[in-house]
Amino acid sequence: MSILIVLLCIVILILLITWGKLNAFLAFLIISILAGLLLKLPAEKIMSAVQQGIGDTLGSLVSIICLGAMLGKLVAESGAAQKIATVLMDAFGARYLQWALMITGFIIGIPLFYGVGFVLMVPLIFSVVYQYKLPAVYIGLPMLAALSVTHGFLPPHPSPTALVTQFGASMGITLLYGLLIAIPAIIIAGPLFSRMVKHVKSAPLELFKPQATDKTQLPGTANSFITSLLPVFLLTATTVLSYFSRNNPSIKGVVTLISEPGLIMLISVLVAAFTLGISGGRSMKSVMAVYGDAVKDVGMILLIIAGSGALKQVLTDSGVSKQIASALETWPVHPLVLAWCMAGIIRICVGSATVAGLTTAGIIAPLLANSSVNANLMVLSVGAGSLLFSHVNDAGFWLFKEYFNLSIKDTLKTWSVMETIVAVTGLVGVMILNSIVA
Hints:
About 80% of the residues lie in helices and about 0% in strands. The protein is mainly α.
């Protein structure tokens, strides 16, 4: 019954947004309250769950998204994005640019949190789209598929790292297996699948549209790449420092602070104000005006993501994810497939890949202890399942929809299918490796 209620709420949510033309944030609030009532969450806890969901979601994303938008806006308006696009196009040519962006997304996605990677790479994607008149979805999906795979499959991302610990797996072996599975998953869900949706029309946000700039006035190549990718360099450096300082508590605390994505984005934005702003002849007032405009442009995106967080929290507090997972325990299927199915269904219901992965881990861990299944492959199976069919209750869905300015229908046809391909390809890869290493 709980599954039917969740499905009913999701259908009503879609209808409110598509047929009713209701603002997505308002629709989320309405459905969150409705879901709480139907799932018999105590009345006095419904609004507290909604508020907690909004607070928890925005608490982890608001600074990253706003600061990322600021950096992206300045990268676009300073001509740095145009310079990067020109260099990439000259290096790889229009024919292979899509693959170049995909490889870039995969490399930076390993040390980079998904939210940071998304808001960092979107300006680069859009600069190519606007400058060379290429389809936005066609160009963007491969890079975002790479970011998604690293988020769900590979340590040191939060969910895979926690799963490695809970299953008693090896971080190194899991990363090795994950890389073997990730590469074909990205290729299939990225360049190959994007050919099928090349016709989907997208009018990306004007926020990242690069200004027409005389090529002689563009920032230097090194300045453009280093400033744009400074968060990547800083996160990579702090990750290495964290490893070497793990036995030194005094240094470890400082490294932990400076490795926070929000602080790294703040440092990057301040550096960009000088390297792309002041050094390019802008006044500080002009740079701050660019940053102010960037925040205005992402305001509604933040509200929509907050709404999806409210719905996720109501479903989590009602216990529906645990009910669904418990019902699946009796399925007569291979443990790796069972774990994938559990994570996938929970993901579809609650929207969060991390929640889906960790909830599944609590159920599968006892089963894993009594079987001969490879723990490293179990981590990857759960990780793959946790990416299945991202839709309207997932913040990533709304990030993609709003940044690429797509309809709900086209977002389902592109983003949701891409995530499903990643999940299914991941499971196939896990089962192939299981037949080899078991």
